[in-house]
Amino acid sequence: MRHMFKLAAVAVFAATVLGSVANVAAQQYPNKPIRMVVPFPPGGGNDAIGRLVAQKMSEGLGQQIVVDNRPGAGTTLGTGLVAKSPADGYTILLSSVTSLALAPNIYEKPGYDPLKDFAGISLLATTPYILTVGVTQPYRSVQDIIKAAKAKPGALTFASGGIGSNTHLSGAIFEELTGTNMLHVPYKGSGPAFIDLVSNRVTMMFDTATAATQHILSGKLRALAVTGNRRLPDLPNVPTFAEAGVQNFGASSWYSIHVPAGTPALIVAKLNAEVNRVVNLPEVRSKLLAISAEPVPGTPENLDAFVKAEFSQWGQLIKKLGVKAE
Q1: Residues near 298 by Cβ (< 8 Å), separated by ≥ 6?
Q2: Which site from 131, 223, 230, 295 is most exposed, i.e. has the minimal number of CB atoms within 10 Å?
Q3: Which helix (H) or strand (E) holds 106?
Q4: Which DSSP string corresponds to 209-232?
Q5: Cβ neighbours of residue 12 under 8 Å, at least 6 residues apart?
Q6: CA torsion angle for 167, 52, 72, 166 (degrees, to 10)?
Q7: Which helix (H) or strand (E) segment is 94 a member of?
């Protein structure tokens, strides 16, 4: 009996010591560089937002935040990497609708549970999707696309950032809403897809406004319509899908920061305060708005509830459309 009491006492002492060490580590956080995993290749909207936020967070935290692009498998490779990383605040995820709401509903074994393996830090921004074509394409309206797609089912192609990505699902929603049938051409991110879109190797792409706006304004792409219920300030001549004759296309993308589940509350709170500070900086807000991203700071609790709702809603739609990883 005494032996059992001694073991119990040792266990309690060890737990107390470990807890104290963890608490001290959390209070001293961060004392070394932080890795921000972006599960997309360089060049897309996610990468641009991740680098913007990482730079400003580095200044505020006093430690460098190194952006680590880990694309592949519909963002599940990079996202799964973060899920399996130590819960110490030194590996954070530039998360999105693709990694936490779409891919887990499409891939049978994504390698992580979006609702259990992560702790939310804060939303960053939301952005609509834009239907774009190369400037030398003959299509100048959404109705031109619909007419051509119905005349030759499967002849028109739409690019995406990968199977299970938001750009893939946007194309599938468009097909469902318009009764068309097009050929999906997946890439490893919207950056590589953009190259073939500009050179007319693919007909069109439903990309986020954050990624597409700069190419539209530079004259490399032609915008045909934007999702949501309002036109974008930087693209006032581009109609909404409703104005173009396609109703109920209100999908939008979002960006957020997550850490592995079990990260100490002190670290979560410190990261949340820093993300909110950064998103509310006038220069950051202006840069986000310039790429058609609406800044949306918030609390960890609100983000966790938001992700849960998005996962459920997109899951229902994915099941209805029958979208699966190929």
Answers
A1: 122, 123, 276, 306
A2: 230
A3: helix 103-106
A4: HHHHHHHHHTTSEEEEEESSSS-B
A5: none
A6: -20
A7: strand 91-96
For 96-122, the pLDDT digits (tens) are 998 999 999 999 899 999 999 999 999
Distance of CA 261 to the CA centre of its chain: 18
Higher pLDDT, 211 or 63: 63
Q: Which helix (H) or strand (E) holds 119?
A: strand 118-134
The model's pTM? 0.78
Which backbone phi and psi does 130 adopt, to 5 degrees?
A: -125, 135
What tokens does 257 get?
A: 């920061």
**pLDDT confidence band for 317 (50 / 70 / 90):** confident
Q: Which tens digit of pLDDT belongs to each residue from 208-251? A: 898 888 899 999 999 999 998 889 988 999 999 999 999 999 88
Evaluate whether 68 touches 277 at the Cβ level (below 8 Å).
Answer: no
Q: How many Å apart are CA 302 and CA 254, to the nearest integer?
A: 14
